[in-house]
Amino acid sequence: MNKKVTAIVPAAGLGKRFGQGSSKPFQTLGNKPLVVWVFEILESINEIAEILPVFKKDDMALGCGLLEKFKFSKVKRIAPGGKERQDSVYGALNLIDKETDVVLIHDGVRPLIKKSTVEESIRQLKGFDGVVAGVPLKDTIKEVACQVSGVRRKGEEIIVKKTLNRNVLWAIQTPQVFKYSALMTAYRKAMDERFYSTDDSAIVEKYGGRVKVIMGSYSNIKITTPEDIGIAEMLLSTVL
User: Fold this and answer.
1) Record: fold of 5-238
2) Bridge partner residues of 9 (DSSP)
3) pLDDT at residue 18 in the model
4) How far apart are CA 80 and CA 59, in angstroms?
């Protein structure tokens, strides 16, 4: 595919489940920060012309220091983070060179992404508005009558509404790759309508985009809690 690809790396999350005052993308895995693992993979992919990190304001100095230390040639600028992940990605989209044809989005806290998955995501975009990596679910999934993150009254029971068909359910990861025009059009509509989602492909889907799923990797975990660092360390020694 002879098209310009820009990779956005959201790394401006608050990391509430990781611990107070922590910046997850800068936590150390092995001998380097999580986000550096991501940059190294993206930097090595020929199709990617630019890497655009998104850092929160308080992390700008730290982020700039890492970029200077590791000399990533494809990082030419940094986007400031927004209140929500979607605000951060939209801000980055508005900084992208209009000559960009394809936008790749990969979480700054998924350090174990395989180069082959990124390359295949880009290759598979032909004929679709988006391509996302994912894995078939292994566990049985039940829909319950209250939100997991919601505030429940003391003694309130969590009641099952229904059991979902695991055979048609996938856990979606990043990278997610989109035609720039389709992603930007969908994002503009979503921001105008104040429709928020934690998944970029869901925004494209909402406004009629065709999104394809390709096989990702069960090792492509998202670092969410301190325990995940230990899991990632183990995966580093066994699958990478």
Assistant:
1) Spore Coat Polysaccharide Biosynthesis Protein SpsA; Chain A (3.90.550)
2) 53
3) 62
4) 10
Q: What is the C-alpha separation between 92 and 54, in angstroms, rounded?
A: 7
- 211 vs 163: CA distance, rounded Å: 25
Q: What percent of the chain has pLDDT over 70?
A: 92
- Please state the rounded mean pLDDT for residues 209-220: 98
Do residues 14 and 131 make contact, with C-beta atoms less than 8 angstroms apart? Answer: no
Question: Is the bond into 175 cis (omega within 30 degrees of 0)?
Answer: yes
Compute and round to an integer the Cα radius of gyration of the chain: 18
Altogether, the residues listed in the chain come to a count of 240
Sequence-ordered list of residues with C-beta below 8 angstroms from that of 118, at least 6 positions apart, any chain: 41, 42, 45, 48, 104, 106, 175
Write phi, then psi, for 123 (nearest 5 degrees): -65, -35
Q: Report the C-alpha gap between 44 and 118 in whole angstroms.
A: 11
Per-domain boundaries in the chain: 5-238
